[in-house]
């Protein structure tokens, strides 16, 4: 029973870490795109 719980927890933690990294990447890319568009509007 304990082995199953340990294995399940490891898999869920790895998945949550991957999801967090993907979310951070998506938000960073969106922020860069929006910031770049805003800068182009200001300086052009």
Report how far apart the termini are: 64 Å
The number of distinct β-strands equals: 0
The residue fraction in helices comes out at over 70%
Q: What structural class do you assign from the helix and strand content?
A: mainly alpha
Q: What is the H/E string?
A: H
Cα-based radius of gyration, to the nearest Å: 19 Å
Briefly, what is this?
The chain is mainly α and 44 residues long. Helix content is 95%, strand content 0%. 0% of the residues are buried.
Describe this structure in words.
With 44 residues, this protein is mainly α. The protein has 1 helix and no strands. The protein has one helix at residues 2-43. The longest helix is centred in the middle third of the chain and has 42 residues, at 2-43. The chain is rod-shaped, with a radius of gyration of 19 Å. The termini are far apart.
What is the element layout, followed by pairings?
Layout (H helix, E strand, L loop, with lengths): L1 H42 L1
Features:
44 residues; mainly alpha
